[in-house]
Amino acid sequence: MYEDLGFSKVDYDREERTGYPEIIYGEGKTAEQITLIAEKLVERHGKVLVTRVSEEKAADLKEAFADSFYHSVSRIFSVGKPEKLYRGKVMVLSAGTSDLPVAEEALLTAQWMGCEVEAINDVGVAGIDRLLSYREYLQTASVLVVVAGMEGALPSVVTGLVKRPVIAVPTSVGYGAHLEGLTPLLGMLTACASGMSVVNIDNGFGAAYQAALILKVANEEK
């Protein structure tokens, strides 16, 4: 079942089909459009998550929703407090500080979807001793989301250190031959490390969604 708003068809049955309510992609939508869609989803589900929201749009949204949260780095806007639903933990690693917007998008999305989350930042391969200092601790994660730009080497290295699924996220952070994220994307797709999957450039949301589904299925089977 959906409701036709003219400019959007709000999908009320998505949670029943997929396990999670519809999530709004905020970029390209006006604050008014986001507000109207979000009001419908909050009325139905008691919560809503909106990705890629500018600070200007967020200011308007916060006026419309009292119980709301906005994170300017990740550009995540949400209504309703996150609730831990699953055993296990999603650990989000970022290679460098410039990768934080994408890493934070993954972290907050996974948290909103019911996962316990933890961040380990600035552990890129340029200073690999930083990563290796967490070598044993990485095993406490159930799923790892690893975010990296430049040549995108970090996810392969992490995958070679852990017995956990790794979701790699290439970012559009780097110099000219980096090709706005294409270089790390292709590097991650051609990595020899087994157990690693790859999402699109800057898609922290997609990585978090996949990680949450992994935890959801694992909890259902126990």
Automatic annotation (TrEMBL):
It comes from the Bacteria. NCBIfam families: LarB. It comes from Thalassorhabdus alkalitolerans. Gene3D superfamilies: 3.40.50.1970. PANTHER family: PHOSPHORIBOSYLAMINOIMIDAZOLE CARBOXYLASE-RELATED (PTHR43064), SLL1489 PROTEIN (PTHR43064:SF1). Pfam families: AIRC. InterPro entries: P2CMN_synthase_LarB (IPR039476), PurE_dom (IPR000031). Transmembrane segments: none annotated. This is Nickel pincer cofactor biosynthesis protein LarB. Residues 88-220 form the PurE domain.
